[in-house]
């Protein structure tokens, strides 16, 4: 990625690239009536509220200007930020199962909720989980993006642990601009279209900018790429779902020999004609079954989206009007609507006691039950499954985001000192409506598989054999062959859920900055401010979902709010300047006091310095405290179902069972011969058939952190336009919020004997299976990350062949350690891959720019280092090192190779003030590395989709 280079002769870029005249991020200094009174060269840089003619602070800031964004052929701000080297794993459009259409940024791979996102220096609306969906911010309004790669809670408050992303919107724009984009992948799918119109006008006393944009991004199906058309590439049907699209009887075995029936099952064969007294096919009950389960296992992966579709429509306006020569009113308004969708294979519908839902077992008196006594059967209730391929599961989101800011700002001189101030009201709200199509109403399912008979040539629901017809009920045959469930049955058992969400932020702010007194190095500066903010939100699920009456996971409503008041102060002390060994020496100090209505107060401070021993070299460092307040979902989340993968340590076949565990289990009433049962059959460590509950914790407190940075920027005077930046960084987070796993809860109960943890779960009296467990977040964990950022930019002197520029942006992670509790063993993630969590040791972006007359071009590369993962399927020939052993024994491993993507764009400036651009991303169709632990697609979501070159054309017309 190419970033902006500095133009000042002796300035040292605070980040990789910056410009000589950065616009103020929270209100530009207003022009005075006389030229000598203007403050146009005073700027505010992300990470400091003090406006200064010097754009550098002690903290590293990366600046991505609009020109750099436009060279990448991307249609969202999220895609731009997810490419920077300091970003880790974050939600994006490739998340289908588990995604909701939102896209985020996660600096240092510490989670998107620990990256503060600002727009023009002010907080943006967050989700219930505390992160910001970048798709609510249209790319059309962006002037530049400043990324502070350091903690900044002393300046901005909560969430600024890993860093701050400050999106600066366009202002003082004069003219009109129409921009269009069209592109698609080399296979002819994934079409993207966008159109943007921006109009701006400057008057004698102000400016107004208006922008409209529309972005349409179509889907790519997983089944349309060889890499992703199977759940695990290379394993074929062996990894398909056991929930076949053909009806399946799970308790087909005898019930009088001690067998529970699950060891023998039957699958409806192709072209089966049904069941009844007229001698139709009986699903092989009276013959040897010639087919196997694997033959009719279902490949659910091909039905999924590989890249989810999305449409975004936005309108934005920003205006400033000078009331006087020194006071102005500023107003902003934005409306953004996102419509997005995910698609999964049809629901794997089940019924019967073995699936935790005895009411949905097929009645012995169902017309479709092959064991119906009327047909000479033994009258058993059938435990069944049928994947509803007749209707895919579709999840639609409609998210409407509203933003309003109104404020006054101004400047004044007092005692030969310059001061600036602003007061304002900021309001952000997102209203989201979700539709979920393809889940079943389990009340209707239970009725449909209840007693039914053939009467007058039609199968009808009845109260019992020979009983009354039940009006409105449609008999349901889950033992249908693939595609055999009729539309009438589907209309009866399926329903469309509608959920409603809202996130809302409302704040009042007041800030002042200015000059204080003269010091040996110059004039000391200060900034002070106050903020009063209210955060609120709710999640109101469909009534059927809240009641737990659907085939999907149930959840209760979430609703809550909290208030806070904050005050901060910052000072900049120029200690020395223009002396031998100290061309510049400055000290910066800041502190912020925050008082929250839910957990109390916290104070966070910082100290930083910058020192120029010579004109060409800047040395800088920073130490800061940070915190993250628990978000709405952490505090107030309603109970939600979670089908958890776990091993019951009371199970007699649990390998780690000790005498203490056995004794405590026995004391809890669990017999010594108890065996855990999951929906994988008998055997420990599977997915529970009884949903556990994820919930909130109103007693959760804030996470705390210490951030440290140190580095230098070298801009040699003998090589003009060369800038080299090296920064070391370290972040340690304590009291990190994490949700204890089922294994941890059971260990604390039975191995450690802590009754408080035992109270979080219960067992079913009939067979001692765990049928409830509460999984709620707590302030338990510790995380420490460390690394280096190295950045280089160089613009060559003009040549006969044109102008050339080079940029390199790298981030190297030397430590990413975590502990579930402070007493736990340290786990290192650097260079390792876990599901949806790549921990690259090195990410790098490089670019080469060329311009010659009206022609220009850019070549950009994106590099991600290799990763190791534990082999999820040993002995299957999939992993690179299946024979690997450690001191503990066999440890097969898979290597995800380093990946480099190449992007190119060429541009031509037309005579009528237009620009045409042609480009391709992932020019060489580089496939992502194969990962055995990746979910569903055999590769991680942070990589480009496989076998896909994205080609596009853009046209820009300026008026």
From TrEMBL:
Pfam families cross-referenced by the UniProt entry: Plug, TonB_dep_Rec_b-barrel
Chief site of localization: membrane
Organism whose genome encodes this protein: Luteimonas chenhongjianii
Positions of the TonB-dependent receptor-like beta-barrel domain: 495-923
PANTHER family tied to this protein: PTHR47234, TONB-DEPENDENT RECEPTOR
Protein name, UniProt field: TonB-dependent receptor
Lineage, highest ranks first: Bacteria, Pseudomonadati, Pseudomonadota, Gammaproteobacteria, Lysobacterales
Alphabetical list of InterPro entries matching this protein: Beta-barrel_TonB, Beta-barrel_TonB_sf, Plug_dom, Plug_dom_sf, TonB-dep_rcpt-like
Subcellular location field: Cell outer membrane
Topology term for the membrane: Multi-pass membrane protein
One Gene Ontology cellular component: cell outer membrane
Top-level division of the source organism's lineage: Bacteria
Statement: the UniProt record of this protein carries the keyword Isomerase: no
Transmembrane intervals: none
Gene3D superfamilies: TonB-dependent receptor, beta-barrel domain, TonB-dependent receptor, plug domain
Positions of the TonB-dependent receptor plug domain: 55-164
Record-stated family: Belongs to the TonB-dependent receptor family.
């Amino acid at each position: 990625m190419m970033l902006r280079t500095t133009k000042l002769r002796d300035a040292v870029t605070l980040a990789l690239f910056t410009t000589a005249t950065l616009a103020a991020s929270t209100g530009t200094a207003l022009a005075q009536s006389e030229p000598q009174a203007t403050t146009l060269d005073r700027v505010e840089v992300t990470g400091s509220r003090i406006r200064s003619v010097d754009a550098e602070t002690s903290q590293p800031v990366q600046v991505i200007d609009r020109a750099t964004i436009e060279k990448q052929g991307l249609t969202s701000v999220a895609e731009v930020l997810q490419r920077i080297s300091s970003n880790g794993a974050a939600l994006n459009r490739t998340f289908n199962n588990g995604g909701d259409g939102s896209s985020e940024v996660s600096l240092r791979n510490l989670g998107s909720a620990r990256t503060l996102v600002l727009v023009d220096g002010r907080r943006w609306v967050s989700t219930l989980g505390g992160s910001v969906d970048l798709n609510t911010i249209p790319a059309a309004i962006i002037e530049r993006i400043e990324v502070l790669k350091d903690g900044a809670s002393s300046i901005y408050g909560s969430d600024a642990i890993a860093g701050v992303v400050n999106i600066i919107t366009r202002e003082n724009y004069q003219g009109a601009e129409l921009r269009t984009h069209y592109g698609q992948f080399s296979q002819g799918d994934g079409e993207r279209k966008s159109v943007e119109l921006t109009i701006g006008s400057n008057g004698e006393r102000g400016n107004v900018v208006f922008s409209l944009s529309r972005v349409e991004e179509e889907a790519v199906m997983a089944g349309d790429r060889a890499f992703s058309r199977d759940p695990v590439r290379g394993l074929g049907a062996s990894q398909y779902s056991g929930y076949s699209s053909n009806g399946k009887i799970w308790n087909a075995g005898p019930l009088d020999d001690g067998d529970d029936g699950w060891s023998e099952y039957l699958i409806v064969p192709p072209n089966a004609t049904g069941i009844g007294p007229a001698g139709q096919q009986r699903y092989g009950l009276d013959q040897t079954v010639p087919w196997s389960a694997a033959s009719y296992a279902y490949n659910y992966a091909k039905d999924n989206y590989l890249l989810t579709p999305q449409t975004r429509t936005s309108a934005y306006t920003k205006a400033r009007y000078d009331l006087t020569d020194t006071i102005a009113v500023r107003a902003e308004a934005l409306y953004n609507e996102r419509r997005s969708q995910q698609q999964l294979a049809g629901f794997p519908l089940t019924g019967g006691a073995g699936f935790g839902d005895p009411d949905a077992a097929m009645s012995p008196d169902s017309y479709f039950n092959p064991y119906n006594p009327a047909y000479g059967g033994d009258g058993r209730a059938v435990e069944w499954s049928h994947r509803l391929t007749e209707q895919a599961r579709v999840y639609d989101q409609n998210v409407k985001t509203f933003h309003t800011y109104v404020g006054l700002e101004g400047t004044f001189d007092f005692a030969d000192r310059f001061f600036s101030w602003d007061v304002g009201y900021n309001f952000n709200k997102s209203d989201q409506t979700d539709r979920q199509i393809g889940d079943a109403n389990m009340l209707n399912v239970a009725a449909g598989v209840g007693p039914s008979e053939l009467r007058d040539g039609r199968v009808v629901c009845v109260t019992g054999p020979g009983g009354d017809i039940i009006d409105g009920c449609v008999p349901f045959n889950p033992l249908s062959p693939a595609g055999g469930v009729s539309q009438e049955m589907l209309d009866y058992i399926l329903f469309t859920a509608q959920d409603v969400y809202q996130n809302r932020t409302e704040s009042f702010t007041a800030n002042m900055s200015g000059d204080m007194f003269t010091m040996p190095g110059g004039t000391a500066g200060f900034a002070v401010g106050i903020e009063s903010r209210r955060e609120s939100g709710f999640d109101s699920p469909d009534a059927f979902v809240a009641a737990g009456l659907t085939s999907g996971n149930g959840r209760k409503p979430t609703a809550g709010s909290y208030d806070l008041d904050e005050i901060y102060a910052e000072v900049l002390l120029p200690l020395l300047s223009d002396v031998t060994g100290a061309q510049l020496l400055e000290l910066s100090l800041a502190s912020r006091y925050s008082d929250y209505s839910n957990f109390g107060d916290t104070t966070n401070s910082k100290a930083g310095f910058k020192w120029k021993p010579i004109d060409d070299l800047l040395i800088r460092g920073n130490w800061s405290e940070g915190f993250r307040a628990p978000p709405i979902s952490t505090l107030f989340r309603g109970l939600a179902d979670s089908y958890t993968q776990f091993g019951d340590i009371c199970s007699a076949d649990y390998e780690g069972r000790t005498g203490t565990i056995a004794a405590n289990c026995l004391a809890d009433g669990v017999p010594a011969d108890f065996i855990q049962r999951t929906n994988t059959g008998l055997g420990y460590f599977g997915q529970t058939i009884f949903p556990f509950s994820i919930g909130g914790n109103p007693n959760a407190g804030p996470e705390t952190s210490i951030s440290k940075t140190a580095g230098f920027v070298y801009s040699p005077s003998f090589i003009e336009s060369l800038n080299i930046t090296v920064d070391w960084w370290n972040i340690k987070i304590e009291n990190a919020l994490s949700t204890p796993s089922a294994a941890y809860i059971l260990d604390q109960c039975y191995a450690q004997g802590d009754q408080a943890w035992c109270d979080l779960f219960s067992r079913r009296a009939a067979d001692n299976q765990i049928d409830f467990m509460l999984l709620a977040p707590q302030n338990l964990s510790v995380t420490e990350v460390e690394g280096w950022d190295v950045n280089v930019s160089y613009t060559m002197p003009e040549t006969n062949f044109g102008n050339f520029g080079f940029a390199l942006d790298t981030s190297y992670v030397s430590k990413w350690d975590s502990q579930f509790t402070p007493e736990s063993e340290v786990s290192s993630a650097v260079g390792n891959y876990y599901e949806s969590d790549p921990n690259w040791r090195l990410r790098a972006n490089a670019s080469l720019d060329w311009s010659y007359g009206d022609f220009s071009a850019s070549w950009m590369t994106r590099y991600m280092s290799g990763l190791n993962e534990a082999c999820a399927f040993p002995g299957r020939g999939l992993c690179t090192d299946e024979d690997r052993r450690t001191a503990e024994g066999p440890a097969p491993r898979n290597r995800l190779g380093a990946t480099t993507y190449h992007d190119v764009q060429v541009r031509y400036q037309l005579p009528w003030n237009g620009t045409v651009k042609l480009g391709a991303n992932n020019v060489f169709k580089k496939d992502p590395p194969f990962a055995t632990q990746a979910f569903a697609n055999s590769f991680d979501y942070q990589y480009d989709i496989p076998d896909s070159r994205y080609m596009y054309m853009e046209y820009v017309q300026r008026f």
